[in-house]
Amino acid sequence: MSQATAARASADNGEASGEEQTAWSVARQRLRRWSFWLLLGVLLIAAVLVQLLRSPPADREDLSPANPAPNGAMAVAEVLRQQGVEVIATDSLDETLGALADGSTLLFHDANSYLEPEQLARLSDHGGRTVLVRPGFQQLQELAPEVTAAGRVPEEGGPLTAECMTNDDGAGSPAPDEQDSDTQPAGSITRGGLGYRGPVMCFTFDTGAEPAASYVTSADGGTVVLGAGHILSNEEIVNRGNAALALNTLGSADRLVWYRPSLSDLAVPEEPQSPLALLPAWVTPVTLWLLAVGVLTMLWQGRRLGKLIQEPLPVVVPAAETAAGRARLYQDSKSIRRAAANLRAATLTRLAAKLRLGAGSSAAAVVDAVARRSNRPAVELDRLLRTYLPESESQLVDWAQNLHSLEKEILDQ
What we know:
Elements: H1 2-33, H2 35-54, H3 74-82, E1 86-90, H4 93-99, E2 105-108, H5 117-121, E3 130-133, H6 137-143, E4 148-152, E5 160-161, E6 164-166, E7 173-174, E8 188-189, E9 194-197, E10 200-205, E11 212-217, E12 223-226, H7 242-250, E13 255-259, H8 283-301, H9 319-333, H10 336-354, H11 363-373, H12 378-387, H13 393-411
Parallel strand pairs: 1-13, 2-3, 2-13, 3-12
Antiparallel strand pairs: 4-9, 5-8, 6-7, 6-10, 10-11, 11-12
Helix pairs in contact: 10-13, 11-12
C-alpha cells in the first residue's frame, strides 16, 4: 500500500514539474516573439523621458505672455504681435531698462512686490506709456502718485461700462472724448480685480462714497492703472470688450515691454546680514532680562545653609536611644495601636526564643507553650498576648507592664 502511494505521489510530482516546464517554455517563446516590440517600447519611453528632461519647464505664472494656460496672457501677446507690435517679455530691471526705447509701452506687473522704491524710481522716466497691472501702495507712490487705491471691485452686479469721468475736483465730471478713446471701443468689461481713484476714471463702480474705477489714467494719459488685470488672461480675454480694451491700451506703440519682476531683482546687501538683525528690537533686552532672572534664581535656590561637616561612618547609635526616639515619635503621633503591635511582636519573639519554638511559630503556639509553663489560664494569656488592644496611653502602659511581668516570669524559670 505504501509503495503504491509513493508511486502515485512520484507520478503527480512528475506531472507537476512537466506542467511547470511547459508553462516556462511557453513564456520564453512569447517573450522571444514580442522582444522586438518590447525593446521598441522601452526606447520610446526613454526618448520621451530624455525630451522631458531637456525641455525647459513650462511657464505657469499669472499673466505671463508665454503661458498658454487659462491664467496666462499668451493670447493677447500673440494678437499684438500679429498687429505689428514687438512684444518683449523681461524678468529683470536691467533687461527692462535696456529694452525700453523712446515711445515704447511698459507693462509692469509686480504681484510679489519684489522691487524697492529706488528700483521703481528708475522706471518712472522711460519716456513712454506705463501700464501698471494691479499695483500696490508702494508702486503707486513711485509710479503713479496721483492715483490711490479704493479696495476690491464687487463681483456681483452687471459688467462695467466704458464711462469715464475726471476726478480733479473730487466730484467727478464727464471726461473729454480724447481721454477715453482707448476705453470707448471696449463697451464693457467683466467685473473683478481692484479699484482705484485718480484724475481720469473709466469703468467706474459704486462704492457708497466717492466713485472708483477699474481703469484709471493720469491727466495726460501717460500712466494707466489697470485694476482689472484679469481681462488680460487667456480665460477672460474673449469675454465682452476685454480684448478691445487690452489691445487699445497695450498696442498704442510699436514696442511693448512686458515686465514681470523675478527673484533676480531682489536687492542683495553688500555684506552678509547678521541673523540677529532679523529679530525684532525687543528680543535682545527681553533675552538679557530673562538671563539675569535665571542667574538670580540659581543663586537664590542653590545657596548653601552652612559648611559641610565631615562625620565618620558607620555611626553607632545605642539601642536605648533608638527605642527612646521611636517611643517619642509614637507618643507625638498618638500611634497607640502601632506601639502596641510592636510591643506584642517583640514579646512573642522573645517568648518563642525562650521556649525554643522557632522563628516561624505562630502566636497561638506561643500562647499554648506559655500556658504549659505558667500557672495562668490559657484564656487570660490569649487575651494578653493576642487579642487585647489598648485605647489610651494609660491602658498601653498598664498592658506593657503586664507583658513585662509575664515575660519575666517565663524567663526566670
